[in-house]
């Protein structure tokens, strides 16, 4: 499925190419055009090969960030890249952070509209195209001040996303580390997902195991994951299958988790998507291993009944539910 809503994406001076949704695994991000140079994530494993990774923690972050809106917690974010000031204003009562699959904020909220609302921006190194020491230095220089984290490669196991084998991602990871080190940022691993169709690897757990085996001694602070699953659940908890996936990640890897994209991918109605969201949020807010999470998306054509935003600056019914759902206080 083509991501028509995001083909206007800008990264640097280059427009991002059309977005592709993998038929059976819920990929939902843009593919940067040539010259965009965006991409990246983070993670560390305790099971399998991941256990050999050097220990690191989020305490490596020294960049600081904007003040958190006192009405929000610290976990809830949104994956979206077409924000206007009005959009950000509408989401800010319940969202403390956001990202947009690149390393510079959206034009619509530059230079600091998001900061004044207390919403933290998290940059990403999207993929490996052109990523060398010179490009890493450029990315580091362009990341805005008051950032604390850096997201790693975006779904590198997808042929239509960052499209890197685990060994290729590991070989490029030192450049991602260099960006983070230059700005004092904590690192989130490559964000993986179950993949169908053209894949480097269909199984995200196997991909991460292979990445960590090939990247022994690399610095990572958090595991990055995406989950798109059905919203029928087990009859009582509509997010049960999402929860089961996260529980598996918890047993396989020993770092805190960033769920940087999630939604129900078969919602036949707004009511189904909303029920899924409410059950998912209750779990995510109360699960200690979940450091942060981000709904997909503000506006998107490729996931039914999942938009948080309608007209400019106007929350949908789902967006209102996302903003108003209970949050735990920041710790």
Which features would summarize this protein structure in a list?
signal; 8 helices; hydrolase; alpha/beta; two-stranded antiparallel ribbon; disordered N terminus; globular; Asl1_glyco_hydro_catalytic; hydrolase activity; about 325 residues; TIM Barrel; six-stranded parallel sheet
Could you provide a short overview of the structure?
The protein has 331 residues and is α/β, with parallel strands linked by helices. It has helices at 85-91, 113-116, 133-142, 166-183, 204-214, 240-252, 270-286, 317-324; strands at residues 2-3, 10-11, 14-15, 19-20, 76-79, 97-99, 120-121, 149-150, 186-187, 223-229, 257-264, 290-295.
General description of the model:
Keywords: Hydrolase, Signal. Residues 34-51 have a biased composition (Gly residues). This is Glycoside hydrolase family protein. GO terms for molecular function: hydrolase activity. Helix 3 crosses helix 4, helix 4 (166-183) crosses helix 5 (204-214) and helix 7 (270-286) runs parallel beside helix 8. This protein has eight helices and twelve strands. The protein is globular, with a radius of gyration of 18 Å. It starts with a strand and ends in a 7-residue tail after the last helix. The longest helix is centred in the middle third of the chain and has 18 residues, at 166-183. The model is unreliable at 1-68 (pLDDT under 50). With 331 residues, the chain is of the alpha/beta class.
